[in-house]
Amino acid sequence: MNRFSYIVVLCIIFIGIFLATVINTPREWLGAQFEITPLIVAYVALRGSAGEAAFAAAFGGLFLDSLSMNPLGISILPLFLIAVVLQSSKEIMVVNSTYTQFIVGLCAGAASPVLTMFMMLLVDGPEPMLGWVTLWHLTWLSLPCGLLSPILFKTMDRLDGMLTYPSYPQISESMVSGNRQIKRGKH
Amino acid sequence: MFKRPQYIAFALVLVLVLVLLNLPKGAATQLKLAIGGLFLPLFGANSSVQTATDRADKALTPRDVLVQELRTLEKENQKLRIRNSQADAIQRENDRLRRLVRWKEQQPWQMLLARVVGRDHANWYRMIHIDVGGRNQIKEAMPVMSIRGLVGRVIQVGYTRSQVVLLGDPNCRVHVEVLDPEGREVVDSGILGPSSETLANPHIVSLTYLSGTGRLERGQAVITSGLGGVYPKGIPVGKIVQSWAESDGLRGEAQVELHANAATLEEVWVIKP
Fold it and tell me: Are B242 and B255 in contact (CB under 8 A)?
């Protein structure tokens, strides 16, 4: 990932969290709010290095918790676990397929709140409200992430392409054919 | 499967999470406020956009509508003034009687208007952000109400913003009293907290630890009792939807519909003691 496009990704995380805080329409209509941080961390995990994914998870987790009643730092590990799983399996995934991107977004959108809730049961903090309706919330949290995932991947890939020089195959010594060399000698 | 950079990243993140989760409460709150403070420019921009939208909306409203609204408000204002003067007379009488029996005089509430600027994005908490904070002398545990009734209490105070936990959240329980159908006498009291329905319907909360001696009727008023010292006595909270006695017959439980609609709150009042 290009450094500039990585900064753009972090800005999207920052603004996405802010918009999830101030825009109340999804909660009014469907009873639950969704946010796209897990999806963006998944994108960074699939396109960037382990360090970039870890930083995006830490950055996103800290900002998520700062505008919530969540204990500070509790969202970092779930986001990072999503990144680790995707990083370790990206070589066997057809990452450029729209269907794969949809599934990745869907799973990231569902896994992040589930893991966060699991962590909240382990640590001492404000008591969360959980019930059968939480399942509906999880569905609602994961579906937009799945639907937005292919759009985000295509937009960010295009942005990355615009900000990076196109890569050409490097010419190595082995690629130069030996029989084209001119041997000079006495005869 | 895992490579060396992944192990290093994992270790670093794990250390960061352990450090953050084990910070002392005060330090964690300060750090949280400091990180949340980075959103201040965005909150400021959002407020400016809202103000500009309101102004544009007002500018586009036809004059006839405004004049009609003004007349309605004038009438309402006159009615409220008359009722206020009546209330003042009752207050004076009340104060005189309190002095006679040597009870502590009631102080009028000091209120500060605040705008709701955001909500908790996590679906497992009911919390709002308001645009007043330490610079407005806001402190933790101050009650917050709307014109309809009690909303919640302040749980975290920054310099320019505060967080308010709403009624129905497990972290906001209030001791309340139930009035008789005429609204004169207290017939029962209990603790207001979340019910199994609150997640689906945020207006419905549960009233537990009722005496269970009498069945409550639908529509009976629920007000704060003043016990605990956080919420002043007499703030309207909601009304009874249904009630039932527990199987042992010792205690009762009821469902309460809140007056304040937290989903559409735009402005609230913080009560300063």
Answer: yes
ipTM of the complex: 0.81
3-state secondary structure of A106: helix
**Which CATH class, in words, describes the domain spanning A3-162?**
mainly alpha
- Please report which helix (H) or strand (E) contains residue B84, including its range: helix B63-100
Distance between A65 CA and the closest CA of chain B, angstroms: 8
Please say whether the beta carbons of B184 and B198 come within 8 A: no
B82 to chain A, closest Cα gap in Å? 38
Most A CBs within 10 Å, among B10, B13, B131, to test the A interface? B13
Contact by Cβ (8 Å): B247, B159: no
Give CA–CA dist B147/B267, Å, rounded: 9
**Measured distance CA(A128)–CA(A75) in Å, rounded:** 14
Residue B1 has pLDDT above 60, yes or no: no
Q: Do the domains B174-261 and B112-168+264-272 match in fold? A: yes
CATH class, range B112-168+264-272 = mainly beta
Tokens of B245: 């006695």
Q: Are B212 and B250 in contact, with CB atoms under 8 Å apart?
A: yes
For the stretch A54-70, pLDDT in tens is 999 999 999 999 999 99
CA distance B79 to B227: 33
Residue B110 phi, psi (nearest 5): -100, 125
For chains A and B, CB pairs below 8 A equal 152
B210-236 residues labelled b (16+ CB within 10 A) or e (exposed): bebeeebeeebbbbbbeeeeebbeebb
Close Cβ partners of A131 (under 8 Å, ≥ 6 residues apart)? B196, B199
Q: Are A88 and B2 in contact (CB under 8 A)?
A: yes
Other beta carbons within 10 Å of B187: 17
Summarize pLDDT for B219-252 with one digit per residue, the tens: 999 999 988 888 988 899 999 998 888 777 778 8
Instruction: Return the H-helix or E-strand segment holding A156.
Output: helix A133-163
Give the CATH number of domain B174-261; options: 2.40.10.350, 1.20.810.10, 2.60.40.420, 1.20.1250.20.
2.40.10.350
The domain segmentation of chain B, as residue ranges, is 112-168+264-272, 174-261
CB contact under 8 A, A32 and B123: yes
Would you state the structure tokens that stand for residue B259, as one six-digit string? 């007056």
